[in-house]
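USER: Fancy drafting a protein?

ASSISTANT:
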Amino acid sequence: MNPKPAPRKWTDIQLAIAAVSMTSVLAFWNMFAGPDRSKSEEKAIEAQQASQAAPTPAVMSVSPAPTMPPAGYTILFGGTAPQPQVIVMQSGQGGNQGGGDPVTVTTSS
């Protein structure tokens, strides 16, 4: 007696769906991109011929640009590091009501 063939698994079906979808995407991509590709190649050849026909301008000397911004501008990600500030606030006034301890708040500028 012949052995029973193995049943199809869900992963086999997913693999077949993925293969068909990728093949169809590539086929449609080539079908619709073909006319645009020929037009873009023609434009690229024309642009290359036009750039070769145009005379090249003389090289001009460029003065070096200053590296620091003018006064009054803020430099981001530079300058001095922020300094921590400690502010102690007193909460409650006298009495023994459980809220008389100082509260320390730390912030960074």
